[in-house]
Design goal:
Two copies of one chain form a homodimer. In chain A, strands 1, 2, 3, 7, 8, 9, 10 and 11 form an eight-stranded antiparallel β-sheet that branches. Chain A is globular and about 60 Å long. By secondary structure, chain A is an alpha+beta fold. The two termini of chain A are 22 Å apart. In chain A, helix 12 packs antiparallel against helix 13 (297-306). The first copy, chain A, has 13 helices and eleven strands. At the A-B interface, strand 2, strand 4, helix 5 and strand 5 of A face strand 2, strand 4, helix 5 and strand 5 of B.
Chain lengths: 329, 329
């Protein structure tokens, strides 16, 4: 596998580092629109919130855009994220002790400093996946499933997630290609193009039963309505979704994976930076969407700017930048 | 440039990400010992502490191994690093207001939390380069050079550094291939193999005047004697140097660069992870040194273990690992 260089890192005029990667853009009927590189098998997490809506749990607990966005999030552990995850659990009569994702300091540096200044330590609510896990737990409680061990492969909660992911992507989620995510749930190695197809279906509902089509649309709409809750202050996902409200869905994952959807074009996008770098995956997804939405010149210009983030010295001088290569334009 | 994959990132049994790179290992007389990939032009910082010793400043201020190690460091901003950088400046009658490297929160997460808990904010002494900058400033004061603007290209301080780097590496340090480092000093794009050769010379003194040979040996010895001061708690550089005291010198730099020396073999090593990832560069340098020191079986086994760092979930379960590829063994 030798995927092309898609992003270069400049210091002054010198290319200091280079990131290779692969991109798949699909329509919901399975038509490939744009592919770069070998869309190799790659682990990714997404689509996992469908059971929360389809089971009726989201309605039972009165969850709106904010809660559904957080259920799809890799959030920064800022106070608004932490408080909302707590409130979701409270609706199901639970608290943070039910979470099995583990605790870590907020990925937001400012939130970490504020927490330490207050003399506090993080708990599982600060885990970037706490909203997703709150969604799993609410689904269990609503469906009358014992929630202990809900993160484990074979638990009813993860079986629901696996069923949804298989159906949406059309790819087998095979126990032989199953790993464990940082938040302890199973994660499956699935071809990148299956995720592109899956997100085209999520955005359009093509090929879904009405209940699933509605749930999928509700989840993507929630994320586009509440980008901050999907990520956090200063995050690329927020900037991309805010660049064109209700027109762009993006979600970054671990190891340089991005999934995205452009409902107006009926397209799903999945990409992976070979080396797992988030900084390069952010450039790739911005450049990819800029190309696909090129007809809207003002929006494309804004996205292309986002695809060239500066590198600054510690005193804030611009000393370099990232840029997409010709392969992406 | 398509360098080979040198490091793979595993989740369970699945290769989730891959890092390409290049390695150069040289003897001091210019004989290449081992080269992988295209040792492309690449910015790196090193050898910059020679003027501190050669100018007589280090002796004048009574600097021993600890101060010289810190002058070569990218430290984690822990209290011991900060206090020593302050003490070095105090010897020259200066304080942190003379530093022009900029302030940032300690790269040590624990040090960041402790600083915030104490209600404090970081200053330039917490910058990972503060020891190096303290060295520049001490050299200026000792030599009677006005120190304001010491970070700028063309200032006598940076001219001394450039002269030393050109002489040691044998490569032109060209203003047309000059960028600006995160700590605001000029940084030059130089072939990787020139750095491998330069560190072979630093370790052996071959080709140097006696004053420089002695200064180079003193600096590398200081780093090997005080590895913690060169990096910090839990850092790969410390683990590698502590694996074989006084036998291994390593120094990681920005954007996935490593320089190293093995005095007993008279070898200098320079490597670069194409994509700039530190996690992969750490594996590359451990695997490279394990191969070069294979005759010491116990040491090689320890280094090979360090070349396979685990990936853990947030609850501390081992869910994956990094590993060097066959190209490195």
């Amino acid at each position: 596998m030798t995927n092309p260089v898609l992003v270069e890192v400049l210091r002054g005029a010198v290319v200091e580092s280079a990131h290779r990667g692969a991109i798949a853009v699909f329509e919901a009927d399975g038509k490939p629109v744009w592919e770069i590189g070998d869309t190799a098998r790659s682990a990714v997490k997404a689509i996992q919130a469908l059971p929360l809506v389809e089971s009726g749990a989201a309605n039972a607990y009165g969850f709106g855009n904010r809660e559904l966005a957080l259920a799809c999030a890799s959030h920064s552990g800022e106070p608004a994220h932490v408080e909302l995850a707590w409130a979701m659990l409270a609706k199901a009569g639970l608290d943070e002790t039910a979470l099995e994702c583990g605790a870590h300091w907020p990925s937001s540096h400012a939130a970490t400093v504020a927490l330490a200044r207050a003399g506090k330590a993080p708990n599982a609510l600060h885990n970037n996946c706490s909203g997703k896990h709150a969604g799993f737990l609410c689904t269990c409680v609503h469906a009358g499933i014992a929630h202990r061990g809900y993160v484990k492969s074979g638990h009813a909660s993860q079986e629901m997630v696996r069923d949804a992911m298989q159906a949406v992507t059309g790819a087998a989620h095979d126990f032989h290609h199953c790993g464990t995510d940082g938040c302890s749930i199973p994660t499956y190695a699935v071809p990148l193009r299956s995720f592109a197809l899956g997100f085209a279906r999520m955005a359009t509902g093509v090929g879904f039963e009405p209940v699933r089509a509605k749930a999928a649309k509700r989840l993507l709409s929630a994320c586009m309505a509440e980008p901050f809750l999907v990520a956090g202050t200063g995050r690329a996902d927020v900037a991309l979704m805010e660049a064109a409200p209700d027109r762009i869905f993006v979600k970054g994952g671990a190891e340089g994976v991005y999934c995205a959807a452009l409902p107006e074009l009926g397209l799903g996008i999945a990409l992976k930076c070979d080396d797992g770098a988030g900084r390069a995956a952010e450039v790739m997804v911005a450049a990819c969407i800029a190309r696909l939405l090129h007809a809207d010149k003002a929006l494309a210009a804004k996205l292309i700017e986002q695809a060239h983030p500066p590198i600054e010295s510690r005193i804030g001088a611009k000393v370099g930048a990232l840029r997409p290569t010709a392969a992406l334009s």
